[in-house]
Write a structure and sequence with these properties.
6 helices, single chain, 132 residues, mainly alpha
């Protein structure tokens, strides 16, 4: 218990607060760098200038970037999430294959068979592929 008397409770709380604040600031720093490098509306020179500003004056650079581009960061995140969701939905749709798609493929193949463009064996192959 000698250790506890050398480090009072308020010092423990202050140290905890400092570590927490450092963690939050590091998260903001990584978030700002990620946003800088993901931006498509900014050229390489602008990205370099923002990086130099954030590296040379870290606290000021991060806070100025958040003040000047905070809303844009949120909009880009929403757009990125919507694009990822749309890409996932498209992937699932192509992999799942709806019953309408299968029926349409078989109907088209039947039309080709009736017109004589394909043989019965080709129709059966198309039908088997659509149903698989």
């Amino acid at each position: 218990m000698v250790l506890a008397s050398d480090y009072p409770f308020l010092d423990v709380m202050w140290t905890t607060f400092i570590i927490f604040a450092l963690f939050i600031w590091l998260m903001l720093l990584f978030r700002v760098f990620a946003d800088i490098f993901r931006r498509t509306d900014m050229g390489g020179g602008g990205k370099v200038l923002w990086c130099v500003f954030v590296i040379c004056l870290p606290f000021l650079g991060v806070f100025v970037y958040l003040l000047s581009h905070g809303n844009d960061m949120a909009q880009r995140d929403v757009q990125r999430a919507q694009a990822q969701q749309q890409q996932f939905d498209d992937y699932v749709q192509t992999r799942a294959g709806s019953s309408d798609n299968v029926a349409a493929q078989i109907e088209r193949a039947k039309g080709l068979l009736d017109s004589g463009a394909i043989t019965q064996a080709e129709f059966d192959a198309i039908k088997a592929k659509a149903l698989a």
